[in-house]
Design brief:
The structure holds two protein chains of two kinds.
Chain A: H1 4-12, H2 20-39, H3 41-63, H4 97-103, H5 105-133, H6 135-150, H7 153-164, H8 168-194, H9 198-205, H10 210-221, H11 223-247, H12 258-265, H13 275-302
Chain B: H1 2-7, H2 14-19, H3 25-35, H4 41-53, H5 67-102, H6 107-121, H7 124-138, H8 154-188, H9 191-198, H10 203-223, H11 226-240, H12 246-255, H13 259-287, H14 289-297
Helix pairs in contact in B: 5-6, 5-8, 5-12, 6-8, 7-8, 7-11, 8-10, 8-11, 9-10, 10-13, 11-12, 11-13, 12-13, 13-14
The chains are: A mainly alpha, B mainly alpha.
Chain lengths: ~300, ~300
């Protein structure tokens, strides 16, 4: 039995009871995973594209050749086809599509990332609690998961965003909350098999508190499925943000968000003005594919 | 589930949403009173749910018609679109998955797996505008609206529905291929496959008689569960292609805060999903002798 002081010290280290050589093994395994990731060409390609988009999202205005929001004077050169001065052409208000595609990376990525983080944190906590305690909480949450899965995310998002009013904040909360039970289910499954292992029993015999066992003992050991789930959900979050924004229930104008650009310009496709729609569409596709390449790499490495 | 959906609905000003931002406040108030939308959410919801239990879905606020009149034709249209998509995607998806599984870990597998997954993750509306550009605009092959002219023949209707269903095909392909791939890999590694090889059977025979038989039946059953996700995609696709299906109906209802219509449409989507899942379960046990026999013994 540890004295209170000792327990305090223990609590500061995530995996306190592992002897030193085992800790090293975990470290080696982690380094090997990282090396395997770096060796994977698909992962590297995905990570590279993703980083380019991240740079666009952060430094957008500095890279963009024109003001993405345009000015009143721009209307004179509206709907110009792609050329040397406007690489991707101009839209109905004469704004440079290239600049808008660059700066448009920001909202979709920020909202998707925030929503996924929210969902992952809530979902992991919920999964740990339901998996560890089982019983009635477990039953209730699993029924909730079923209910969530019965209605497609886009329709659920549409209904709740109409009710709550569309804004980036509500978008993050709605997507995050929809993700929560789905992530919780994955984490719960991992916790169910962990909780029977000896180190958990040992911790129980040491009289550790349930929260300590859940978050300091089990959590580090279910980190791998959580990481995988996070990357998978990030892809879905991009999907959801783009679709809801396209429908008009997400990011609002005058943001140069990609989904919004397509919404504003797809109607004039029939007139032969393809460039204000094509380039944001390709940007969404490329971003999603880059995330998928990374997810695939991470999945392979962790599932070994 | 229904209560859960309803709990999220905190109506804004319905009269305002229908009449637009420039209507006089008096007119808005009158309309709200007429529709009953000046009452509290709970009263409205209670009203609606009471009607639903008696088989009455209520009247649409915006269209001023019974919800059922709007819902059923829309559902029929969407079903046509979804059916065409499934008819195309199920064979292709299974073929892709099996092709990938037979070369597990090699280039063909990686291309099909990652390609399928990426196609799945690209939003439907992005596919929609891309196929419109390629097939409608540049190649000028197919019509870019989905609504066929009135009393058009069977093949004309299919021609009009081809582009929108193609978007669904792209999105569903990855999922179906992944299921087929996982099932095929599992039965490739099974003992009975090894036995079949050891009996001296040829690779072709083993794959067609032993592997596929075991891997594809569950895949077909699982496909049914995709119906629910399909509806989410229909909202964007029907909007882009201007098709009068349930997706477009949900979109309009949401825009105009037409709660009876929105709630009923969502309810129908949920019910279709449940029915599809049930069908999948039944199909799965019907196709799988082990589960069927285990069920009859107990």
């Amino acid at each position: 039995m540890s004295t209170p002081e000792e327990r305090l010290v223990l609590a500061e280290h995530p995996v306190p009871e592992t002897p030193h050589h085992e800790h090293d093994e975990a470290g080696i395994a982690r380094r090997e995973r990282f090396r395997a990731l770096v060796r994977s060409k698909a992962f590297l390609a995905g990570a590279f594209i993703f980083c380019v988009f991240v740079i666009c999202a952060i430094f957008g205005e500095l890279i963009a050749p024109y003001d993405p929001l345009g000015s009143a004077a721009d209307i004179a050169n509206k709907l110009e086809a792609p050329s040397a001065s406007h690489l991707f052409g101009t839209d109905q208000l004469g704004r440079d599509v290239f600049s808008r595609v660059i700066v448009g990376a920001r909202d979709i990525m920020a909202v998707a990332l925030a929503a996924t983080l929210l969902g992952t944190i809530l979902g992991a906590a919920l999964g740990l609690i339901t998996g560890y305690f089982r019983g009635i909480v477990d039953d209730v949450v699993m029924r909730l998961v079923d209910a969530f899965l019965a209605i497609p995310l886009v329709i659920l998002g549409t209904v709740s965003l109409v009710a709550l009013g569309p804004s980036k904040g509500t978008l993050i909360i709605v997507i995050g909350i929809v993700f929560t039970p789905i992530i919780a289910r994955t984490v719960r499954a991992a916790v169910l098999s962990e909780r029977e292992l000896e180190y958990v029993q040992a911790a129980r015999l040491r009289n550790e508190h349930a929260p300590y066992i859940m978050f300091a003992e089990i959590l580090p050991n279910v980190a791998a499925p959580i990481v995988v789930e996070f990357t998978v959900r990030l892809g879905y979050a991009i999907f959801a943000v783009a679709t809801l924004t396209f429908l008009g229930f997400g990011v609002q104008p005058p943001s140069p968000d990609w989904g919004l650009q397509i919404k504003e310009n797809y109607i004039i496709l029939n007139g032969g003005y393809w460039w204000p729609t094509l380039f944001p569409a390709l940007a969404i596709g490329l971003l999603v594919i880059s995330i998928n390449l990374m997810t695939d790499g991470i999945n392979r490495v962790f599932s070994r | 589930m229904i209560i859960f959906v309803a709990a999220q609905l905190l109506p804004g000003d319905v009269g305002r949403a229908i009449l637009g931002p420039f209507a006089a406040q008096q007119a808005v108030d009158d309309l709200n009173q007429e529709l009953g939308t000046d009452r509290s959410v709970f009263v409205q919801y209670g009203d609606w749910i009471g009607g639903v239990l008696q088989g009455d879905l209520g009247d649409s606020y915006a269209f001023r018609r019974p919800v059922g009149d709007l819902l059923w034709p829309a559902l029929e249209n969407s079903a046509k679109l979804a059916l065409l998509a499934f008819v195309i995607v199920v064979p292709i998806g299974i073929l892709g998955g099996v092709a990938a599984a037979l070369k597990e870990g090699r280039l063909r597998d990686r291309v099909i797996s990652i390609g399928g997954l990426s196609a799945t993750a690209i939003p439907e509306f992005v596919w929609a505008v891309l196929v419109i550009m390629v097939f409608g605009l540049w190649l000028d092959l197919l019509p870019v609206t989905a609504q066929a002219p009135r009393d058009a023949g069977f093949f004309t209707q299919i021609k009009y529905l081809l582009l929108p269903s193609l978007c669904l095909v792209f999105v569903l392909f990855g999922y179906i291929a992944r299921m087929a791939r996982a099932g095929t890999i599992e039965s490739l590694n099974a003992d009975y496959t090894r036995t079949a090889y050891l009996k001296g059977l040829q690779r072709r025979t083993v794959i067609s008689r032993h592997v596929l038989r075991n891997s594809l039946l569950p895949t077909i059953a699982v496909v049914a569960t995709q119906v629910g996700y399909l509806f989410g995609g229909l909202v964007a696709i029907e909007l882009v292609f201007n098709y009068n299906g349930i997706g477009q109906l949900i979109y309009r209802a949401a825009q105009q805060q037409d709660y009876p219509l929105l709630l009923s449409a969502t309810l129908v989507v949920g019910i279709v999903y449940l029915l599809a899942t049930l069908l999948a379960d039944v199909l799965y046990s019907a196709l799988n002798p082990r589960i069927r026999l285990a069920g009859s013994e107990s």
